[in-house]
Amino acid sequence: MRWLAALLASGPARRALGLVLAVITLALFLLNLRRAGESAGRLAERLDTMEKVNEAQRQMLDAVARRPADRDALAQRLRDGRF
Question: What is the pLDDT of residues 24-74, one digit of tens each?
Fold first, then answer.
């Protein structure tokens, strides 16, 4: 164990250890960045899907609001060609 302490006390070993730690830190940062990007992509896709669903629901609600009140109103609308 003393040899390890003596090895780490030398200048080149400390530099090498610092370089290895920097490379590991950079690799972990890039992996985390990639994971965050994938998560953001999934969230963007979910938002797009929700917007499409909301637009379809809005169109259905608009259609319901414009529907004829009863059968006579429907018949009148058909006669007028506004259906």
Answer: 999 999 999 999 999 999 999 999 999 999 999 999 999 899 888 899 988
DSSP string, the chain: -HHHHHHHHSHHHHHHHHHHHHHHHHHHHHHHHHHHHHHHHHHHHHHHHHHHHHHHHHHHHHHHHTS-SSHHHHHHHHHHT--
Give the separation between CA 42 and CA 39, rounded to whole angstroms: 5
What global pTM score does this model have? 0.54
How far, in Å, CA of 12 to CA of 16, rounded?
6
